[in-house]
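Support reply, case 0932

Customer input (verbatim):
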Amino acid sequence: MRTGLGKQRAREGLKAALNNFHVTSVISTGFAGGAKAGLRIGDLVVADSVLELQPGKEWKLLQSAQPTRQFTSDPDWVERVMQSPPPDGAVVHRGDLLSVDEVVSLPQNKAALGRFYDVTAVEMETAALAQIANERSLPFISVRSISDTVEEELINASPLLKPNGEVAVLKAGWFVLTHPGAWKDLRHLQRNADLVAGNLAKFIQAAIIDA
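Our regenerated output:
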């Protein structure tokens, strides 16, 4: 199921699924920003664990690492997924994720988070899903595809999206009108998203559905 951006929507979506279906495993997929050098657009990250800052802590305080809580992926799922071949042109990386509460757009901030927390990528939903899976004693894994590298500045498109994750046409149109030159950035973001989504779908198909 598609939950949209952010931990709260992810949490609500998983709870709805648990209330309506017999769930045996929780598999989180989506986009992530690279936090280490060497990752390319469309590469995949299989998470050994996901970190989340303790409540009340702010990721923007980037002078040093802050306390986190950690949720570990199911090792059997990790090994199973890592045996699957990647899509053409993509590389599968194994590492940790950091879940944050808003888009990390600046390269120096992504690099700092990767350095302080020793994570491969940053994203916005996984910790919420992992926590619920942990509370319900359900096997959990997250597979993320890199939508922006650690060297790349990312335009924050989250204000332009509807709650379900689709683009709000009026908001996007107004943004382009009030931000000259933004159309080029949005087109670049869309091309990246098409590649990332395609690679993620192919890998999940091979690793989970066809296996």
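We compared this against your earlier run and they match. Two observations from our side: The domain at 7-209 is CATH 3.40.50.1580 (Rossmann fold). The chain is about 40% helix and 20% strand. Please reopen the case if you see a mismatch on your end.
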